[in-house]
């Protein structure tokens, strides 16, 4: 695989070709990836897969018209044909008054921050096989586990580069590692329950021990055996961190520039107002060392920096790329995200909700009767109204403690009300792309199966 400096040169070369072909402005993305995945099942090797790819994407502007093209053929002749085709397409495209490159005066200048995202990624198939075996063995060793969907281990390394015709060129490399296990436990009458565990890290030395991942998968599956049914009514719902992160994900969709400019957000007029309970702070930190979504610059070449999106309950910022910022008469926020094709969208980096002040046991103590959710099913969220309805599974809360498993119930509410009623515990851990502590939301509607 190319190093990130050579990747940057590739992107710059494509931009230069576009300028020579008649584009008024252009940007180019180069992305390369190499990944190795190993899976095992019931103690035997099941699959070894390796993938490698190199792609270039080009966006050109002719006046206020633009077009995007991409290719995996990186020969000089293919580059010339790609550029000619892109410029011809742009000349026939409709005008867009808001499209364009990021403001030149806002581009990242100087050296980007060092984020410790790349350890080389040299891991052999046998090492990954041993890790996958260890995870599955530990999961199957948990008493009550009766079958396995398998264990897996992966390693990857990617290189990403961006160049623009108005002065930006940058690149970086990142590695990624993963361990997973998924097993089943059989309850009374032969009914089986499945659960899983996974851990991912940028650096191999930070990856959790495979046996710990496997044990967690096994314990989760066994705990779900013989689920009961929830009674219906209004009650507190407590979200496990691995599913509670989705509540913050709905926030990012509602405050994206596209949703605001199209007036399709349930938070349309909420900027500068109290959206969450007064103690809630949500931060985005692209500079977190070896973070799963850390990055030195955004998808348009703008600098990125830590940002409080919600500060003590107040919504402080939209998430804006340059096009949405122009349309709204605001400045871009450094959240542009680019794929190989098309115009930029927006994305957060390492998004997290700050921990609260109370332990999980205290958060549960005065619940009385409620439910602790560990799995969400379906996509019943309306981004325009904030109406929320999801299938769920988890555990009954009785007398302030977690009791037996429950399944096939629905939780419902409106995100505006849920955000204002939200209470975080103090157990925040950084394990995912979006991280939250255990969350409690009072007054939700639960419909039993």
From TrEMBL:
Name all Metalloprotease TldD/E central domain ranges. 121-224
**Metalloprotease TldD/E C-terminal domain spans which residues?**
232-448
Any idea which GO molecular function terms this record carries? metallopeptidase activity
Limits of the Metalloprotease TldD/E N-terminal domain: 36-90
Q: Which domain of life is it from?
A: Bacteria
Gene Ontology cellular component list? cytosol
Question: Pfam families, per this entry?
Answer: PmbA_TldD_1st, PmbA_TldD_2nd, PmbA_TldD_3rd
Q: Which SUPFAM superfamilies match?
A: Putative modulator of DNA gyrase, PmbA/TldD
Per the UniProt entry, what is one GO biological process?
proteolysis
Q: PANTHER family annotated for this entry?
A: METALLOPROTEASE PMBA
Q: Which family does it belong to?
A: Belongs to the peptidase U62 family.
> What's the protein here called?
PmbA protein
